[in-house]
Amino acid sequence: MGLHTSVKNLFIGHERSVNVKKNIILSLGIRGLNIVISLLMVRVSLDYLNPMKFGVWLTISSLLGWFSFFDIGLGNGLKNKLSEALAKKDYVLGKIYVSTTYAVLAAIVAITALLFFLANPLLDWTKILNTERGMLPEVEMLVLVVFCFFFIRFVLQILSIVLQAYQRPALANSLGTLGNMMALIIIFILTKTTSGSLIYLGLSLSAMPVLVLFLAAVYFYRHDLKLVAPSWRHVELTRAKDLASLGAKFFFIQIASLIIYQSSNIIISSFFGPAEVTTYNIAYKYYSFSYLVFVIVLTPFWPAFTDAWAKNDVTWIQKMVEKLMMVWGVFSILSAFMLLISNWAFHVWIGDQVIIPFGLSLGLLIYFITFALGNIFTTFINGIGKVKLQMYSSFMMVVIFIVMVLVLIKVFNFGIMSVVIGSIFANLYGITMGPIQFIKITRNQATGIWNE
Questions:
Q1: Helical pair 314-340 and 274-298, crossing angle rounded to 10 deg
Q2: DSSP state string for 300-350
Q3: Phi/psi of residue 237, nearest 5 degrees
Q4: Quick check: 386 and 452 in contact, CB under 8 A?
Q5: 5, 224, 324, 354: which has the fewest C-beta neighbours closer than 10 Å?
Q6: How far apart are CA 213 and CA 218, in angstroms?
Q7: On the CB side of 386, how many CA atoms lie within 13 Å of its CA?
Q8: Is 54 exposed, middle or buried (0-12, 13-18, 19+ CB in 10 A)?
Q9: pLDDT per position as a tens digit, 375-386
Q10: How far apart, in Å, do the first and last CA atoms of the chain sit?
Q11: CB 294 within 8 A of CB 368
């Protein structure tokens, strides 16, 4: 009876808070499944390929990150603008924003894809990936397959942003999980029926998410999201300015984040070879598991903060940030425990194929703890669109990251730890200026760049 009452009380309170709780609970299940799939994916992929080929795949995946931000921030701009429109129940405006975003991003993808396919024949992928010359035909075909599906997914993934604006991030996350599950099944079948092929692996991991997003878009825009479903009649390029004015700031932040966080694999591959990319990524993935749990809790708050700010509900915002700080404390303890059992966990997970140094583990633990703390405040700041200070700070962090990594590699010979240390210092905005900006804004004391 007590358990029943506790569960019932969990869904009593402010409608916005209840919705956040529901999404967190659903996302825990979905993300939990995704973590299991991710663990199995690494093991199955390593069994199917070797560490060298797997490192090549991881590096190409990182290169896709450079293209993933070519939406010039329109995705995050749409999330904020659509959330505001939904808070005011202005579905026509919401439909215009969604339709315009699809049209603009489709045009961007078309131009980007054309430029890529024109430039691709001129690129020597064995030099870019620092791999054997004999792998050139396989790598070239892999690149074509992966980028073709990526460009399609680039447009289709707008559906996930629309679902997040509707404060349904759990449903948005489930689409990616379903795609990964289908890919895992296919790769497992490949291990039993074929020899290790980068092309087959890339096709499986690229095509399945695209298929899931396409079928989901057809369904949801005919049912749950019918009121904001995209149509050519509602494309208004003049509205693109509204999206772009905010989106441009997000875009510059994303570019800075891209250089700092997505270039790690490329830097490691260039200086130390693809095999070290595998070492770094396995350790990174392990310590990201507890961070993913934290993200599950944090994700519903972006559109919720937008909704609360539009309705001038500052008290709710302050209470939620206090609770998120408590969650961060639990996350930090969980992460420290993962460090204590890391040797045993790595052995159970991947056997003795890859050895993870303790220094790398400790560095990534510190990185994720500081990153999670900063994300509490940047989530609020992003949700209300006052990101100018964050934009300028991001480019300062890029300079710090690049200089520090190069000095640590070339002068002090810190190896792949150079990237980890540089990434930790690149978190300075989130854990210093982020909290200050939050306090200033919620106390109505923010002026100048702190309020832009």
A1: 140
A2: THHHHHHHHHHTT-HHHHHHHHHHHHHHHHHHHHHHHHHHHTHHHHHHHHH
A3: -65, -20
A4: yes
A5: 5
A6: 9
A7: 21
A8: buried
A9: 999 999 999 989
A10: 50
A11: no
Encoded tokens for 436: 């200050």
Helix, strand, or coil here: 131? Answer: coil
Chain-centroid distance, C-alpha 173: 11
Please, which contacts does 31-40 make with residues 24 or more away whose CB atoms are closer than 8 Å? 31/173, 31/177, 31/292, 31/293, 31/295, 31/296, 33/177, 33/181, 34/173, 34/176, 34/177, 34/180, 34/292, 35/289, 35/292, 37/177, 37/180, 37/181, 37/184, 38/180, 38/285, 39/349, 40/184
Tokens of 34: 């995704």
The label of the residue with tokens 């349904």 reads 168
The residue behind tokens 């919401």 is 94
What is the structure's pLDDT at 449? 92
Closest C-alpha among 121, 57, 34 to residue 296: 34
3-state secondary structure of 421: helix
The two tokens of residue 202 are 């890339």
Task: Please tell me whether residue 352 adopts helix, strand or coil conformation.
Answer: coil
Considering the chain, what is the average pLDDT of its residues?
Answer: 85
8 Å CB contact between 171 and 165? no
SS3 label, residue 299: coil
pTM summary value: 0.73
